[in-house]
Amino acid sequence: EQTEAGHQHSSVTITLDELTGIKVNEEEQLSTTIQEGDQPFPDATVRFEIWKDGEEQHKYINAKESSTRGTYTSSYQFEEAGVYKIIVHVEKGEVHDHIETSVEVL
Predict the structure, then answer these.
(1) N or C: which end of the chain has fewer CB within 10 A?
(2) Distance between CA atoms of 39 and 94, rounded to whole angstroms?
(3) What angle do CA 7, 74, 26 make, to 5 degrees?
(4) How far is C-alpha 78 from the chain's CA centre?
């Protein structure tokens, strides 16, 4: 499937571990699992883009691949209560993909 810009949709699946019970100023573990078909997708460049809903400033957090191939983690501290948007960006070779989700911080 081609988009109008000519970018091909990648064959990777990005899954962000569910984030619940997030509290202000506590270190949270962000974890995403990336697969190509049913195989892990190792050695990719993975970043979390995080911003509070309605705000201009976006923060980019680099994720490191964990000991589980295809799983990438980082820690982050949310500074205010509210709804935050998180985009997981994945890049490797020809693959440039992302997913977006939102979380509530209490």
Answers:
(1) N
(2) 17
(3) 130
(4) 15
User: How would you classify the pairing of strands 59-65 and 45-52?
Assistant: antiparallel
For residue 89, give the nearest of 36, 48, 60, 30 by alpha carbon: 48
Whether residue 6 is predicted with pLDDT greater than 70 in this model: the reply is no
pTM score = 0.88
Q: How far is CA 26 from the centre of its chain?
A: 19
- Asked if residue 90 lies in contact with residue 65, where contact means CB atoms within 8 angstroms, the answer is no
Q: What is the mean pLDDT of residues 4-24?
A: 80
Query: Does position 80 have pLDDT exceeding 70, yes or no?
Result: yes
Length reported for the chain? 106
